[in-house]
Amino acid sequence: MTTRLKVSLGILFVFQLVVAGLFGLAHDEAYYWLFSRHLDWGFFDHPPFVAVLIRYFSFLGHHELSVRAGFICIQFLTVFLVMDLVPERHKTKVLFLFFAFPLASIGGMLALPDMPLLFMTAVYAWLLRNYLEKDDLKNSCSLGAAIALLFYAKYHGVLLVFFTLLAIPKLLQRKSFYIVTLVAILIFLPHMWWQYSHNFATLRYHFLERPSSSFSFKRSFEFVFLQVILAGLLAGPVVWWGVIKHKTTDQFERSLKFISIGSVIFFLISSLSKKTEANWTVYLTVPLIILTLQHEIWDRKWVQRLLYVSFGIVLLARLVFVFDKDQLPLKRLGEFNGWRGFALGVKIKCGHRVIMANSYQIAAKLSYYLKMDVPALNYHSRKNQFDFWRFDLDHFGQPVCYVTDKKKFMGQIVTTPEGKELHIVHLPVLPRELEPKHIQIEKVGQ
After folding, report:
1. Ranges of each domain in the chain
2. Confidence (pTM)
């Protein structure tokens, strides 16, 4: 790695840290921050990697940057790993490509499960290459551990293993592969036990309880279009062209191509009947960059200029988060800024009463900015981790200040930074109808 490249990475790292500390937490970031305060082997929405990473950097204090610092660190570790998997002459292009991928670039500033998944994808790819080159006990155990941590990052990691086996079925004939499998199972066993003891609530929600949508070609077309744009913005079509046209030369490249194209086909089929999220394929950043940089098209000047323009646009785009929605007419900005003042305003209006919210988003935001656990009652709302925590039981029979968006409970109206009207209702005790319809958990062994 050249000195110039090291300096560029250092400047980018500092820039990312500075910007990440200039705006408030998103709803899900505050929710995952609560995960980090109540660590467990699993949570209703996701495995625990995101929570552990936030907790690990909590020594930096109660600030948005401390919540996000770990994600920025693993973002740059991901870049280093990818650089090690491409030809020497293309290492600088990895930097520009990675930070031209909108979700990989901007997502590194946010405390979400996407960056742990992307990081573990890079670790998995790096160790898979080693394992394919040298079949020994060290590489087998290392790959098994990486697979387990991949699953701890996000369940989507199973697709990488599935498409790897589809690309290289002969792996099943390797005796050492069963060591890989055993190590992965042993390390992931605590989470599997957590799922069992919680009636597989997460799996049931994601695979059985999430609502289906009507058949839609439009949704599928939008999904494909986004996959091209998210693969490097203006350079996205070139990235996919390089991946599709590249003829794989070994098992490692073959597995990456199966992962890239297979994942898109998998989610494309899913999009025909269900809503899909753009960030579900963020892990493709790693195989796409490795594969596309094997193609000679990146030596052309016009392609390089396209890449640099894309890099610049995405780099500047993150500055949008610093503004609030009154300064820039973007509705989503209301999720990030103004919540500290909103939370303090709710606290003043509620006085000494116990604060409870209806939705997990509002409860999480109030919890973070008031530095306390605010229960979410989930009245006519989807299930979430608050159904397991039951913070409300700590305040049974006490006067309640209920913050809700349900118009059935009329009270003093307050407006969130997003422009949504909420009602603050003072209750002598929690009415029976508001008692959370929490998930029934059968204790193991009973």
Report:
1. 3-322, 338-434
2. 0.91
